[in-house]
Amino acid sequence: MCSFELMRLEFFEIVQNSFERKNINLLQKKYDSFKTLDADKRSALDQVMRDYLLTLLVDSNADVPKWETFVTFCIQACRDDMCTPTMPVVLLGDMFDALTLDKCEQLFAFVENGVHIWKEELFFSACKNNLLRMCNDLLRRLSRSQNTVFCGRILLFLAKFFPFSERSGLNIVSEFNLDNITEYGAETDGDLDILVDKDEPMDEDVKPNDSKLKLDYNLYGKFWALQDFFRNPNQCYNKVQWKIFSTHSSNVLLAFKSFKLDDLQLKHRKLPDAAADQTQHYFAKFLTNQKLLELQLSDSNFRRYVLLQFLILFQYLNSPVKFKADTHELKADQIEWVKDTTSWVYTLLAETPPDGPKFVESVKHILKREEHWNAWKNDGCPEFQKPSHQSDESVIDDSGEKRRSFSRPRRPKRSLGDLIKDASTHKKVVMGNPELTRLWNLSVHNLDACKSRERDFLPTLEGYFEQAMEQADPSAPADEENKRVNDGNFGWRALRLLARRSPQFFTHSNNPINKLPEYLEMMIKKIIKDRPVSVQQPDSEFSTNMEDIVKVEQVLETEENTVNETEEEELLKGEEHSKRGVFTPEQFEALAIKLAPDWQKVAYKLGYRLDEITFFETGRSTDEERCRFLLQIWAEDDEDASPEGLCYTLEGLELMEAAQVLKEPLAS
After folding, report:
1. What is d(CA 374, CA 443) in angstroms, rounded to the nearest whole number?
2. Helix (H, G, I), strand (E, B) or coil at 35
3. Predicted pLDDT of residue 563
4. Where is there biased composition of kind Basic residues (predicted)?
5. Which residues, at least 6 apart from 462, have a Cβ–Cβ distance to it below 8 Å?
6. pTM of the full predicted structure?
7. Is 404 helix (H, G, I), strand (E, B) or coil?
8. For residue 358, what pLDDT is reported?
9. What mean pLDDT, rounded, does the chain reach?
10. Distance (Å, whole) CA 215 – CA 293
C-alpha cells in the first residue's frame, strides 16, 4: 500500500513531465505501477492536477492557450479512467476564480467550443452541476450593463449545454425580475414640442406638420410609470393599480396615435451614412431623461419596444398560468378592455414604419408560440419526444372482407393525487394496491374491526386442554414422557390462554410454583372440577359465577364454530375467485345489464375523457353493449383492473346492485 503523500509527490513529477512532452502514456504507466485501490489513485491524481494548475497560473510565461492545453490533457486522463470526470470543470472553475475578467472572457471561448465534450455521457451527469455553478459564479462577477456580451455568451452556452426540458434553466413558477426597476427623473423644464426641424431642407413631398404633441411632465411621468407594471404584471389584479394602469395606458396610446410616423419622416431623419443606418443598437436599460422623450417617440424601434411590452402584458393577464394565485383573475369589463386595447396596439404597430404589417404578423406568430410554451410549462415541462404516427390498420373479418380498424383510445392512468382525493370524499384510504385497499377499507375504524368477534381466534379452555384432561384421567393413565403438560410449547400457550380465559389464573396463593407441568396439572384438575360444579351447585355465589363463565365459554365456542364455518366458506369463495383470476363473461353480462342506464357516469369515474366516451357511444348501438365494451376495454388496458377495485368504485357511485354482482359468485 502506498501513502497518499507518496503518490502525490510521484504523480506531480510525472504529470509535469507528461504534460511538457505531451505524452499521456507516461502518466498511464505511472498510474498502473501503484498497487492500491483505483479510488485512492484517482484522489491523489486529482489533487496533483489542481496543484500543477496552480504552478501554471503563477508562471508569468503561461498564457490562456497553455491553460487550455492543460485542461485538454486532464480530459484525456479522465477518458483513460485516471481522473474523476468532474476534474476538467473543477480546473476551469479554479482558473476563473483566479483570473481577471479579460482573461476569463478569453478562456470562456474554450468552454463554448467544447460543449460537445461536456455533453458526452462520461462528463454530462458528473459535470452539469459544476458547470452551472461555475457559470453562475461568473455571472455574479459581471455587470449586466458593462459586460452585456459576455453575459449573453454564458447564457447561450448554458442553453446549448442543457437539454431543452432541463428544469434548472426554466422559470417554472413564473417569477418576474422585480429587481429591474426603471428610474426616471423629476425634471420640470417646461413643455416640449415635437416639431420638424425647420433648418433642415425638406423633400418636396414632405409637407409641414402643423400638429403638435404637447409633451409635458404629466405625460412623461405616466409613460415611464408603465414600466413598473411591465416589470410586475401582477399589480394589475389590484383594483386601484388596475385603474392607474388603464388610465396611463390610454393616455400613452393616445399620444402615439396623435403623433404618427411615416416613411417620409424617417427618410427625412435618416443618418448621412447609409451603412450606419443598418446598424442595430441595443441598450440594456432605457434612457429616461425627459428631454430625450421627444426623440424616443420619433424612433420607430422605440415605439415597437413599448407596444410589444403592452402585448406581452396583455397575454399574461389572459393566460391560464399554473402558479397564478386564485385571486389573479380579470373581471368581465377588464377582459373587454384588454381585448379592445390589444386591437388598438396592433393597429398602431401596423401604422409604424417600416414594414408595419409584416412586423405585426411576426409578433402574432411569436406570441402564438408563447402560448404553446405556457401550456407546456403548465403540464409540468414533460420531455419532448417525437410523436408516434399511428396509421389506421386494415384487418380481415370472418367473412374474408377487408375493413378499416381504428385504434381504440387508451385510458390514461389516473394520478395518485386524484385517487386519494376521490377516496377521501368517500372516507376511504388508497393503499396503492387494490387488494390492500380492499382490506384496509373493510371497516371505517380498523381498531374496532380488530376487536370484533370474527377476529377472536383464541380456543376455548375445554378444547385446548381436551387431550391433557384425558391424560389426567386416573382410569386411563398415560406415560409421563407423552403427557402434553410436559411439552414446553404447549405449556407456554396454555399460560397465555389461562390468562385470557380462566378466572383462577390470577387467584392469590401463597404456594410457590415449582414446575410448570405441576401447575398445569393443578389447573386442569380445577377445570375438570369446575365443569360439574358449575352445573350442580348453582346456589353458591362462586358456583353461580363459574356457571356464567361456562355459559359464556359455551356461547363463545358456538360462535367460534360458526366463525370457522364462515371462514371456510369465505376461503372456498376466495379459492373460487382466485380460480377466476379476472372478470368472467358472466360478470360482464350481469354488469352490463345493471349499469346500462349509468354507463357514462361509470366511464367518467374510471377516468375516461369526453372524446373517449364519444368513441364508446358511436362504436355500439345500445347502452348495454356500450357498457359491456367499456368494461372489457377497461379490464384490458388498466393494470390495476380487478373485481374488487370495480366494486369499490361502484360503491362510491352508490350503484349497490351492480356492486353486489361482484361480491356474490355468479352461477355458471
Report:
1. 45
2. coil
3. 45
4. 405-414
5. 469, 527, 531, 553, 557
6. 0.47
7. strand
8. 95
9. 79
10. 8
Q: What is the mean pLDDT of residues 606-613?
A: 79
Cell 410454583 sits on residue: 513
Q: From 409, 242, 408, select the one nearest 313 (Cα to Cα).
A: 242
Q: Cell triple for residue 494?
A: 396454555
The secondary structure of 455-496, three-state, reads HCCCCCHHHHCHHHHHHCCCCCCCCCCCCHHHCHHHHHHHHH
Buried-state track 450-484, b at ≥16 Cβ within 10 A, e below 16? eeeeeeeeeeebbebbeebbebbeeeeeeeeeebb
Q: How far apart are CA 340 and CA 350, in angstroms?
A: 16
Written as nine digits, the cell of 507 is 387467584
Q: Give the phi and the psi of residue 395 in degrees, each rounded to 5.
A: -120, 160
Cell of 400: 374474408
Question: Is residue 319 packed enough to be buried (19+ CB in 10 Å), middle (13-18) or exposed (0-12)?
Answer: middle
| pLDDT tens per residue across span 390-432 | 444 454 555 555 555 545 556 566 677 777 777 777 777 887 7
What's the pLDDT tens digit per position in 11-67? 999 999 999 999 999 999 999 988 888 888 999 999 999 999 999 999 888 889 999
Average pLDDT over residues 354-368: 93
> Which grid coordinates belong to 43?
484522489
Is residue 317 within 8 Å of 229, Cβ to Cβ? no
Of the candidates 269, 264, 346, the one whose C-alpha atom is nearest the C-alpha of residue 304 is 346
| Residue labelled with grid coordinates 492500491 | 36
Q: Enter the C-alpha cell of residue 148.
A: 452585456
Q: How far apart are CA 293 and CA 194, in angstroms?
A: 10
CA distance 118 to 122: 8
Report the alpha-carbon distance of residue 348 to residue 360 in Å, rounded.
10
Residues 492-502 pLDDT 10s: 888 888 888 77
Mode of pairing for the β-strands spanning 393-396 and 402-405: antiparallel
Residue 192, SS3?
Answer: strand
Across 262-281, average pLDDT: 51
* Block residue for cell numbers 389426567: 472
Report pLDDT for 273: 46
10 Å Cβ neighbour count for 48?
22
Angle at CA of residue 360, ends 357 and 362, nearest 5°: 115
